[in-house]
């Protein structure tokens, strides 16, 4: 059940500026969260942190009376550990002009709102699929991989446009990602679309497939990276975690004819054994995928994997890998994991650490968990290589042939 409480704003930070608007076609400006310090009516004198989605509720000011959802903060969650404003009783809800908006997001909840879906714009609106896309899509396991992937992608070739499709599996409001804002400001992302129940991007898509098609076909992205917002959910079970969104995203990309690369979640510093080496999140997705995809590993960095995978991955990890002790991973069908296109990519951890981009995952720095960042950088580098290969194939295609 919802846990809602009355509260009063005692301090309010200004809403951050919107990111630069993308080129044609015009897209909705990405909303931003506003951070507040509040005081619950039942706890006078005790301040708490809260956020408000400005696009849904408008700005809050000191003295405003709010209704806030307190569950996340009361549970002490590592991510999402703040109160969320449900409604501003002082200012109410200001209607906005959505123009032709006629599709609901967050349907049948108290926060349902209309959007104009990107699927109705450009070629998609004319029901022209133009398949196969033949442009690469990188699929993230979690949001913390986005910055190193985008940085390594840009380092792999100037002038290539990488867009981000935010899916379910983590935070739903697009404005909660400060990483996206920074990457947009630096020109490392060409756009930000939110798909499915996720909302608040520069464009709204009904489906992940629709978002990928719009970004790659209409907006002219050279590649897309697809994955959940910050704060994915996890239960410790095989299938009950936000990383499973990667399975749906990869299948959507494959169905559209896109070259699909799974960015492996790896760790050398996570205290949980199931995430050490290649995370069980990635292994499960690789097992369940209906078709093979590309997977990049950082060259020169060894990953401890289960002994049952060593024979199949020996060519990737090198001859020295079998002599290294492996972690006991519960992998019942190793052949389904080794069938994928395993690649090696050169990474530059010191250069990324010096870039000023986000360099922590769950509190661990690059030096404390180099394998996490190395794997994400490898994914970005491999994605850039796929773009170069796709470009060469289009140039080599005979005149008049469909590339």
Description of the molecule:
- The protein is of the alpha/beta class.
- The chain has two domains: 4-93, OB fold (Dihydrolipoamide Acetyltransferase, E2P) (Beta Barrel); 129-396.
- 27% of the residues lie in helices and 21% in strands.
- It has helices spanning 54-57, 71-75, 122-125, 146-155, 178-185, 208-218, 245-255, 280-288, 307-317, 334-338, 349-353, 370-396, and strands at 4-12, 33-40, 47-53, 65-69, 83-88, 103-105, 113-115, 137-139, 162-167, 191-195, 203-205, 223-228, 260-262, 266-267, 277-278, 294-298, 341-345, 360-361, 364-365.
- An eight-stranded parallel beta sheet has the order 11-10-9-12-8-13-16-17, sandwiched between helices. The chain has a five-stranded mixed β-barrel with strand order 1-2-3-5-4. Strands 6-7 form a two-stranded antiparallel ribbon.
- α4 (146-155) crosses α12.
- The longest helix is centred in the C-terminal third of the chain and has 27 residues, at 370-396.
- The protein is globular, with a radius of gyration of 22 Å.
Tell how many strands the DSSP assignment holds: 19
How many domains, in number, for the residues?
Answer: 2
Give the averaged pLDDT, no decimals.
82
| Low-pLDDT runs | 22-31, 303-329
SS field, number of helical segments: 12
Q: Which class do the helix and strand fractions yield?
A: alpha/beta
Helix content: 25-40%
Major pleated sheet: 8 strands, parallel
Distance between the termini: 52 Å
Quaternary state of the chains: single chain
Which geometry do the CA atoms define?
globular
Radius of gyration, taken over Cα atoms and rounded to an integer in Å: 22 Å
| Strand residue content | 15-25%
* Strands ordered across the widest β-sheet: 11-10-9-12-8-13-16-17
